[in-house]
């Protein structure tokens, strides 16, 4: 794919500016991360609506719950690894259990921080957040979906975790795409196998489907951006109408999209599955793109997993 | 290292280089050929984003070959962007997320105390890092357990990632905060090696109390165009800047 690539943080920041313009209740809160959350323009325009709490994630999430209690709509913007890992109990108790109207925006999720190492990789965040009740967890695939998910989150009265990427992705979804949380969108029809992907892996799953198409294998591709609540119906249909499911995510193969899909399939329509993601070990040193290849997340490898599943009958 | 890797944290590396040199070549006891020697002093690099400075000192101290420094952040390198205990000899605990080092150092000092061991524990913390509450939980415990063989050095360069500490979330009066938490606290020039050696030679600052040394430093120290410039937290020098920086640091060495 030679299409132009976009960093979805830019779409996020631009839409947050539009929303903040429309709704004075929207505030942003961050942890010394104005730059990495692309909040520079926001800070210039509304210095009093940008709270930089310092390097203190637990406090940041607790304060966001308090801001929501006082009627604000806080968008918490921080690197996903620290936002989820460091402040998990605040997310559970102060945000989800207390039903605080807070939008948790995890930046640079997945392997985005590459050579900065496993401390900065955020490949556990789906697992950590999707087990928390009353928290919508969604990972947009491109800038169109990012824009729409941010807009949806602002008008939805309740806790949301938006898992945002940094690695460049091409435009995938049409501008008239209507993001709905908890609903998978079929990007390609097919019967041989279903690729269920989200975030940065959607474009790679589409490329994998292209590869198999040339071999005469028509593959279904679903963009499953929301992992909680999960679109069980789409999983059941994929399980019954195609020969199996390959999940693709920039996340550990444990507890993420693959786990969520497997739970749904196993309890309604068991089917063959393969899970493409980061295997259960800490990454060696290497850049983000090097690591994705290292862990076999290239389109060719994803296609190979689909091919192997089809022939494994 | 940083130029070749294309990423790194040069400002904070330069602000703590003199502290690390003083620690490794005047204060700490270690045997590079046996990095796990149970009697070694423990040093915890809590501001893990400055791994580059740590690796340079670990190479000078003999833990790794100086040649290996050129692999900084390259695929499969032991020199990860943040120090990893499972990758790198001489690294006591993996760091990177801020606010992790001090609790681990407190535990190590506690173990030494339980064993009546002679070794000491040191932790280097960033000043912005002190905004993490975990530090203060650990600080409270260290004083409670009278860990007087534990020393914290704060790299007080006044800057964090995106702004000065005092405009982000005020740290001052910093020395009095540590004192209020039960730490005997002193301040020093973090680039005056003689002065720092004098302070380290007088440890513990007070029997029965953990020691805190606030080292006043300059982020980007030694390179005129980097000094005190917040953007050099993680900016990478271009070819021209690299040459100018090398020249300035070389001149400072010989003068
Ligand atoms: C828990 C956590 N939150 C955020 C970051 C991102 N981060 C890396 S370095 C840094 C600034 C650190 O400032 P300071 O402690 O003053 O270090 P120095 O000035 O010595 O570089 C930040 C916010 C992090 N590494 N860990
Ligand atoms: Mg600092």
Description:
The complex is a heterodimer of chains A (313) and B (255). Chain A is an alpha/beta fold and 313 residues long. Chain A folds into two domains: 8-163, Rossmann fold; 185-311, 3-Layer(aba) Sandwich (Rossmann fold), CATH 3.40.50. Chain A is 40% helix and 19% strand. Chain A has twelve helices and twelve strands. In chain A, helix 9 crosses helix 10. The two termini of chain A are 31 Å apart. Chain B has 255 residues and is α/β, with parallel strands linked by helices. Chain B has one domain: Rossmann fold, CATH 3.40.50. Chain B contains nine helices and five strands. A five-stranded parallel beta sheet of chain B has the order 1-2-3-5-4, with helices on both faces. The radius of gyration of chain B is 17 Å and the shape is globular. The mean pLDDT of chain B is 97. Classes of the chains: A alpha/beta (313), B alpha/beta (255). The interface between A and B is medium-sized, with 32 and 33 residues. Bound molecules: thiamine diphosphate and magnesium ion. Residues 126-128, 157, 159-160 of chain B line the site of magnesium ion (MG).
Spell out the blueprint of helices and strands.
The complex is a heterodimer of chains A (313) and B (255).
Chain A: H1 8-22, E1 26-30, H2 40-45, E2 50-52, H3 57-69, E3 73-79, H4 80-86, H5 88-97, E4 103-107, H6 125-130, E5 136-138, H7 143-155, E6 160-163, E7 185-188, E8 193-197, H8 202-213, E9 219-223, E10 226-228, H9 232-241, E11 245-252, H10 257-268, E12 273-278, H11 288-294, H12 299-311
Parallel strand pairs in A: 1-2, 1-3, 3-4, 4-6, 5-6, 8-9, 8-11, 11-12
Antiparallel strand pairs in A: 5-10, 7-9
Chain B: H1 2-5, H2 10-27, E1 42-45, H3 51-60, H4 101-115, E2 121-126, H5 133-144, E3 150-156, H6 165-168, H7 174-180, E4 184-189, H8 193-201, E5 211-216, H9 239-254
Parallel strand pairs in B: 1-2, 2-3, 3-5, 4-5
The complex binds thiamine diphosphate and magnesium ion (MG).
Magnesium ion binds at residues 126-128, 157, 159-160 of chain B.
């Amino acid at each position: 794919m030679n299409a132009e690539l976009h960093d979805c943080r830019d779409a996020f920041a631009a839409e947050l500016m539009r929303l903040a313009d429309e709704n004075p209740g929207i505030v942003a809160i961050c942890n010394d991360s104005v730059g990495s959350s692309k909040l520079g323009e926001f800070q210039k325009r509304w210095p009093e609506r940008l709270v930089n709490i310092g390097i203190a994630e637990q406090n940041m999430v607790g304060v966001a719950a308090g801001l929501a209690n006082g009627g604000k709509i806080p968008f918490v913007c921080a690197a996903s690894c620290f936002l989820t890992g460091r402040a998990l109990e605040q997310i559970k108790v102060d945000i989800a259990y207390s039903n605080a109207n807070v939008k948790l925006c995890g930046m640079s999720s997945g392997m985005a921080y590459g050579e900065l190492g496993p401390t900065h990789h955020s490949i556990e965040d789906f697992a950590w957040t999707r087990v928390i009740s009353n928290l919508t967890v969604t990972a947009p695939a491109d800038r169109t979906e990012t824009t729409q998910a941010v807009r949806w989150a602002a008008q939805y009265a309740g806790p949301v975790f938006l898992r945002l990427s940094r690695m460049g992705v091409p435009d995938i979804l049409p501008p008239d795409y209507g993001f709905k949380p908890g609903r998978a969108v079929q990007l390609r029809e097919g019967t041989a196998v279903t690729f269920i992907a989200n975030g940065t892996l959607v474009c790679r799953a589409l490329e994998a489907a292209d590869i198999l198409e040339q071999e005469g294998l028509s593959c279904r591709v679903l963009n499953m951006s929301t992992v909680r609540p999960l679109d069980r119906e789409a999983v059941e249909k994929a399980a019954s109408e195609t020969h199996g499911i390959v999940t693709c995510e920039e996340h550990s193969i444990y507890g993420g999209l693959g786990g969520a899909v497997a739970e749904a399939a196993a309890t309604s329509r068991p089917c063959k599955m393969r899970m493409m993601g980061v295997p259960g070990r800490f990454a060696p040193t290497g850049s983000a793109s090097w690591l994705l290849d290292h862990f076999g997340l290239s389109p060719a490898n994803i296609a190979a997993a689909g091919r192997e599943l089809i022939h494994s009958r | 290292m940083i130029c070749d890797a294309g990423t790194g944290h040069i400002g904070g590396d330069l602000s703590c280089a003199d502290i690390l040199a003083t620690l490794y070549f005047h204060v700490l006891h270690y045997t590079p050929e046996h990095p796990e020697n149970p009697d070694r002093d423990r040093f915890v690099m809590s501001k893990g984003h400055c791994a580059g400075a740590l690796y340079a000192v670990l190479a000078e101290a003999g833990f790794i070959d100086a040649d290996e420094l050129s692999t900084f952040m390259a695929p499969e390198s032991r020199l990860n962007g943040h120090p990893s205990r499972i990758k790198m000899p001489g690294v006591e605990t993996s760091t990177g997320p801020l606010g992790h080092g001090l609790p681990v150092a407190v535990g190590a000092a506690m173990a030494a105390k339980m064993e009546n061991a002679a070794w000491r524990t040191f932790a280097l913390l960033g000043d912005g890092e002190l905004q993490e509450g975990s530090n203060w939980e650990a600080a409270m415990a260290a004083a409670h357990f009278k860990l007087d063989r534990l020393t914290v050095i704060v790299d007080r360069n006044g800057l964090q990632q995106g702004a000065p500490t005092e405009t982000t979330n005020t740290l001052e009066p910093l020395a009095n905060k540590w004192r209020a938490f039960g730490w005997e606290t002193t301040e020093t020039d973090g680039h005056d090696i003689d002065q720092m050696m004098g302070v380290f030679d007088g440890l513990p600052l007070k029997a029965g109390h953990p020691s805190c040394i606030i080292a006043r430093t300059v982020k980007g120290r030694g390179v005129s165009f980097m000094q005190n410039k917040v953007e050099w937290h993680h900016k990478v020098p271009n070819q021209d800047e690299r040459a100018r920086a090398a020249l300035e640091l070389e001149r400072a060495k010989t003068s």
